[in-house]
Every structure is written in structure tokens, then in C-alpha cells.
Amino acid sequence: MRIIDADTHIDETDATWEYFGDAELSYKPTTTYPSNPDPKLPPARYWMIDGKRQVRFIRSDVDSGTTVETRELLDVKARLKHMDELGTDIQVIYPTLFLMEASEKPELNTAMRRSYNRWLGDRCGESGGRLRWVCMPPLQNMESALEEMGWAKEHGACGVLKKGDREGGKYPADPYFEPFYAEAEKLDLPICIHTGSGVPDFSPAREFSHGQFLRTKGAAINGVLGLILHNVPAKFPKLRIGCIEAGSMWAPFVAYDLRRQQEKQKGRTALGGERVQGQSCLHHVSGR
Q1: Distance from C-alpha of 268 to C-alpha of 201, rounded to nearest angstrom
Q2: What are the pLDDT tens digits along the chain (288 aa)?
Q3: In angstroms, rounded to a whole number, what is the distance separating the alpha carbons of residues 165 and 198?
Q4: Pairing of β 46-49 and β 4-9
């Protein structure tokens, strides 16, 4: 039986941004370091994106059980060797930086995501099909997002990442995203609602824990609940939707909340324009 790690990650590196076009170079992220580092704290570095700092992690090989060559895909063969040691046949790769939105500028987000997709597609293309990945669509530009999904499908992507809260100023059930869902359904690319947020937050890193649940787990649960409540899965019956890295307890919570709302609204017009009756929305949570 093959072992598939359905949610593994990479750390972006300088090579991630080598696919920027000449007209996009002003948006290219650069690495910076604290001007006056505190010797009592672990070393730190940042991505500088649109004049704002985003954490670029410095990880311990011992604590992470990885090396910089494997976690930044600098050496694909080394990553495959580590997979063999773990007994893993296939990994599905998610980003690190993109889990938290870095900018509200559509042109910057499009350039970053296109470069990321090209970099990851090329690196995973050296793995003989053992490294698969999820596409990062530039959803503030729908035309570009659909183009990226097509390119990604042809280059080993097996899913497309979606945030569960506002992305480009719109929640997941907004009609704006219907062409996105339709294209994912056509390409047979699952919508992967991963923990994280589509809303930029430039609070100091030390304050991340103040809103950690809202910015990570809460957003993913909101995305699933909103899609079901607004009958989006019913509009795209062949579209697969996953809630990634949010554990499993979101499922009974969502099912319970939907049952309560369904009982209250029975016989009325649902948010998606259909009549509420029976178990019309609950099967999306129960797995049937």
C-alpha cells in the first residue's frame, strides 16, 4: 500500500522568485535581517514584500528533522531520499509564506504566485511524480487565476489552495469565485481550504498568538461552513473540497451548526436560493 503525505510544506527560497518577468522585478521579494539583533533571541530574517516584513523562518535541522536542502527544495534527490527513509511514497506540497496574505496589491500577488507556481512545478518535475503540489491562484485577477490553474494541472499540481476567509475582499461563497470553482471542477483539481488567512495582517510577530485561531483554524472552518450554507457544492457537484491542516473536529461542529440553522430555516428560502428541506446540505459534511 502506498503512503501519501497529503499535507507537507516547503520553505520558499530566493530561487522561488527567479521567474518574475522584467516588468515585475520591482515586486520581487528580498531577504532582510534585523539591524540590531537581540543576542538573547534566536536569529531572525524576513522577506521584504511591498515595504512590509514577513517572517522568513530559520529552522533547526535537529528540531525539524530536515535540512535546508530538503525543506527549500534545493536538492530534490535529497528530499526523495528522506521520503524513502520515512517510508513515504508521495508528498503533496503546500507553501509557507502564502498561508498568510502578504499584500493587497493584485499585480504583486499575481507576480509572486506565478513565479512560485513555475518554481515549484519545475522542481517537482524532477521527482518522477513523487512530489505533487497545490497551485497558488492569483484570485484577485480571475483571468490570471484560471490560466495558472491550467498550467499547474499540466505540471503536476493535484489541487488548488483557497483561503477560508476574505480573499481579494470577498468570502469563498461570493459569486465572484464561481468561474474559479467551475474551472477547478473541469480540471479535476480539488479546492484545498488550508489553514491560514487571505487578509493581510502586519501586526508584530510577537502578537501573532493574539489572533492565532482566527487567522489559522477559524478561517478554514468558516470557508467550509460558508460554502455549504450557500449551496456552492450543489452548484458544482463534481468539485472536491478539502479542509486541510485543521484537524477533524471542525466536521462535527459544522454539521451541528448546519442542523440548527436548517431546523430554523426549514420551509424558507435558503441563502443559495433553494428551499430548505431534508438533509440537502448535510451530506457534504457527513461524507456521503
Answers
A1: 38
A2: 889 999 999 999 999 999 999 999 999 999 999 988 888 888 999 999 999 999 999 999 999 999 999 999 999 999 999 999 999 999 999 999 999 999 989 999 999 999 999 999 999 999 999 999 999 999 999 999 999 999 999 999 999 999 999 998 999 999 999 999 999 999 999 999 999 999 888 777 667 677 777 777 889 999 999 999 899 999 999 999 999 998 888 889 888 988 888 787 776 655 555 554 444 444 444 433
A3: 6
A4: unpaired
| CATH class as words, domain 4-9+67-286 | alpha beta
Nearest-angstrom CA–CA distance, 218 and 192: 15
d(CA 182, CA 17): 29
- The pTM of this model reads 0.89
Cell of 238: 463534481
Name the DSSP letter for residue 40: T
* Spatial contact of 233 and 227, defined as CB atoms under 8 Å apart: yes
